[in-house]
Amino acid sequence: MSDHDPLQKLWTQQTQEPFTMSLADIHERAQQFQTRVQRRNWIEHAASVVVIAAFAYVAWVVPDWGVRVGAGLIILGTLYVMWKLSTFARAATIDEKNEARSWADFHRAELVRQRDVLTRIWSWYLGPFVPGIVVFWFAMAFAPSVDLPLGARLLMLAQNALMGGGIFAAIAWLNGRAAKRLGREIEALDRTRDL
Amino acid sequence: MRATPDQDARYLAAAAEHGPAMQRLASATEANTERRRDLLQDMHVALWRSFASYDERCAVRTWVYRVAHNVAASHVDRERRTRAPLVTLDEIEHMPSSQNISTEVEESQAVGRLNDIIRALGPPDRQIITLYLEGLDAKSISEVTGLSAGAIATRVSRLKSQLARLFQENSPRDANV
Asked: For residue B40, what pLDDT is reported?
């Protein structure tokens, strides 16, 4: 390519802001990065621990076996999501070798990872909570300790199902839409590579 | 993170030789001064970290550009929700200049305008044009980006002529930069 392109000359001879970073700064910032990743993982785990503690408390104080089974299943679902989150976090952790892959390989791998997380949202994030939540709704609607006619119990169940189902459907739809956008970006990248 | 003497030495040599190019890439990626500084620091940390596994299967220059461009691409990916949508160079031709064209004769403003244009580009045009401006040939750009040399040559030719035309149209006196 031409050595006399004026834009290349303008580009390479541009005045730059002063910038220095010593080895000590590099080492410190690399350590800060590791600490940040660990802190983020701890915050995610702490949120899950709060959910587990809340449902464990419910299972402890409510003398209804349906509620207890529901709470137990939600706790199991939360533990599963915690495990999957840590798997995804590990997959997303920067790997020195991956960082030096060609831009197309690096970019594609990242797009695929993000798309897969979003596409599989039912299997790793929403789905694990469904059995516990459904059992919980049934247990609350048909609790023998609550004096309600059958119609009112069914109405309560339907309201919970509609509200909870609506929230789950909205989360799944938003994630599906984002996954499709990432899919289109992957296709565009593949088309560029095939040229 | 424990550093090896090789890792530190390789990083220092690479940063001394390619630091200015990394800084130019950061300028072409991020307009905000503070975020640009953070991005540049991230590039340097990633480069130092990457040298722990440098296997000499590619030239140091290729390695440095790959790491820097991958960090920049991740940065854009994170920021794009709050940024203006990325466009192609064809679309930029119809974008009004955000600056007073008559004052763009100054070199710094011309560089600013060039950075504005590059920042608005989507992948892989941004990667290709910044590597071209650094003086890399199609084969070297291909090694960094992973795209075929033929595709690179075609895109460079198109990007180069459109970029030059944009500059001539918007700031005629920049022709002598």
From this structure: 96
Look at the alpha carbons of B122, B128, B132, B134 in this order and tell me if their dihedral is positive or negative. Answer: positive
Is the bond into B124 cis (omega within 30 degrees of 0)?
yes
Cα B65–chain centre separation: 9
Is the CB of residue A97 less than 8 Å away from at least one CB of chain B?
yes
As for the ipTM of the complex, it is 0.78
- CA distances to A77, A133, B55 from A128, in Å: 5, 9, 43
Q: What is the rounded distance in angstroms from the CA atom of residue B177 to the CA atom of residue A4?
A: 11
B128 chain-A contacts, CB cut-off 8 A? none
Residue A37: closest CA among A91, A78, A117, A107: A91
Q: Within an 8 Å CB–CB cutoff, is residue A16 touching chain B?
A: yes
Instruction: Name the 3-class secondary structure at B96.
Output: coil
Burial class (CB in 10 A: 0-12, 13-18, 19+), A190: exposed
SS3 B87: strand
How many C-beta neighbours within 10 Å does residue B118 have? 24
Rounded CA separation A11/A6 (Å): 8
B2 near A34, Cβ under 8 Å? no
pTM, 2 dp: 0.75
